[in-house]
């Protein structure tokens, strides 16, 4: 999201996080950062394969992801926790239902088009595509919308991702998301609430 802090402006011209600062080089946008890190540190080939067709499959998923999974999954967190926190008002249940219906459509496409009968999105090994997907899909789980419960194929894929990453690291990486409800107990500065509430509401339109 956008940050108005002076520090964010120095790292990212877009004033957005996540952002990367590597010496004098700065970079914004999560996908670009992941690809940069893969190339710089010569990571194991399965993350972003050197095989041109396998790499194209990763790119294909990353391109599809933003307008589908990412367009819906994070909104569950905004609707159930963050917007009520900043506005002091719960959103109508119809709003969550609308988002869940959109997410359900995306998940169906994800299973049928990308997972199919494979272990991971591009085949038998985990890749960046799986990492990008799982981070978004854990957000509904963190606010009590278990999208894996009635989807055995999706549930088994999640288990394989956990095993490939390592369960301890997996849950460490998702700790904040899985404990997001605890934010409802914190006190927000009234002036900050006034500034952010309209912005947050606009994000759901």
From TrEMBL:
Q: Which catalytic reaction applies to this protein?
A: RX + glutathione = an S-substituted glutathione + a halide anion + H(+)
Provide the protein's localization: Cytoplasm
GO BP annotations of the record are:
glutathione metabolic process
What keywords are annotated for this sequence in UniProt? Cytoplasm, Transferase
A single GO cellular-component term on record: cytoplasm
Provide the family line. Belongs to the GST superfamily. Theta family.
Q: What is this protein called?
A: glutathione transferase
Native organism is Climacteris rufus (rufous treecreeper)
